[in-house]
Write a structure and sequence with these properties.
By secondary structure, this protein is an alpha/beta fold. It has a single domain (about 15-155), classed as YqgF/RNase H-like domain (Nucleotidyltransferase, domain 5, 2-Layer Sandwich). The chain is about 45% helix and about 25% strand. Strands 3-2-1-4-5 form a 5-stranded mixed beta sheet. Strand 1 and strand 2 form a beta hairpin. The longest helix is centred in the C-terminal third of the chain and has 29 residues, at about 125-155. The radius of gyration is 16 Å and the shape is globular. The termini are far apart.
């Protein structure tokens, strides 16, 4: 044994992608599987202040060996940005500076509505749905970004 991790020939090890649904009170989190095919939700971060928020994200980035970050980008239905989009641009730049990772902004229009609709279809209580809606939105953001990247790579 050489101390190197062994894997099947032809299998490429990928680092994970972290998806964020950033709100004023919570940050919904999702992480890709190592191959970048599926997104799984992680426990939502309750926002306190910038220092603690970034410390929580640092732990997640380290734990999952994150290589890239996708941040939900709140555009208006017309596709134009507003104050929320400006805030996310600044947040994404802070992430880039702090973690030295590629950070992608991804259109999140309708993800919270879609997350709420999907959760309503379950037998989950209203209280519990409120606790996981940000996580589900992060999963939807990350999954749609990965699907779009995979589709672009296939072309």
């Amino acid at each position: 044994m050489t101390g190197q991790s062994e894997q099947e020939p032809g299998v490429i090890a990928h680092r994970r992608v972290l998806g964020l649904d950033v709100g004023a009170k919570r940050i919904g989190l999702a992480v890709s599987d190592p191959l970048g095919i599926t997104a799984q939700g992680l426990e939502t971060v309750q926002r306190r202040n910038k220092r603690l928020d970034f410390e929580a994200l640092a732990k997640i980035i380290k734990k999952f060996d994150v290589a890239e970050i996708v941040v939900g980008y709140p555009l208006r239905m017309s596709g134009t940005g507003g104050s929320g989009a400006d805030k996310m641009q600044r947040f994404a730049e802070e992430l880039r500076q702090r973690f030295q990772l590629p950070v992608h902004l991804w259109d999140e229009r309708l993800t919270s509505a879609q997350a709420n609709r999907l959760l309503r279809e379950t037998n989950m209580s209203i209280k519990r749905r409120g606790e996981v809606v940000d996580q589900m939105a992060a999963v939807l953001i990350l999954q749609s970004w990965m699907d779009a990247r995979q589709s672009a790579d296939a072309r």
